[in-house]
Amino acid sequence: MNTRSLIRVMQEMGFQSQAHNLYTNVFGTLNREVERKDVFTKKGGKWGLREWLDEEESEEMS
Questions:
Q1: What angle do CA 1, 34, 60 make, to 5 degrees?
Q2: Closest Cα to residue 1, out of 51, 60, 42?
Q3: Burial class, 4, CB count within 10 angstroms (exposed 0-12 / middle 13-18 / buried 19+)
Q4: Is the pLDDT of residue 62 over 60?
Q5: Cα–Cα distance for residue pair 27/3, rounded to 1 Å
Q6: Which tens digits make up the pLDDT trace of 23-50?
Q7: C-alpha count within 13 angstroms, C-beta hemisphere, residue 9
Q8: Number of domains comprising the chain
Q9: Are 6 and 19 in contact (CB under 8 A)?
Q10: pLDDT score at 54
Q11: Is 55 exposed, middle or buried (0-12, 13-18, 19+ CB in 10 A)?
Q12: Alpha-carbon distance 4 to 51, whole Å?
């Protein structure tokens, strides 16, 4: 899911923000999380949970 799609879903689910630039905030936060290699990952310009990528790679090796 790309950043704009993620923000759209967050807003549809009731997320409210007074940020002047929500895109920049979300993008920056996700990038920091990817650098920590903890929960999120980015592949092909799309964000996802690291466990999804781990599962996908495991299936490809099978």
A1: 65
A2: 42
A3: exposed
A4: no
A5: 6
A6: 999 999 999 999 988 888 888 888 988 8
A7: 7
A8: 1
A9: no
A10: 66
A11: exposed
A12: 22
Give this prediction's pTM.
0.74
What's the one-letter identity of residue 2? N
Q: What is the per-residue pLDDT for 59?
A: 63
2-16, 28-42, 47-61 — which one is most confidently predicted on average? Answer: 2-16
Angstrom distance (rounded) from CA 8 to CA 61: 34
CA dist list (Å): 37 to 23, 27, 54, 56, 58? 21, 15, 12, 16, 18
Domain that residue 11 falls in:
3-61
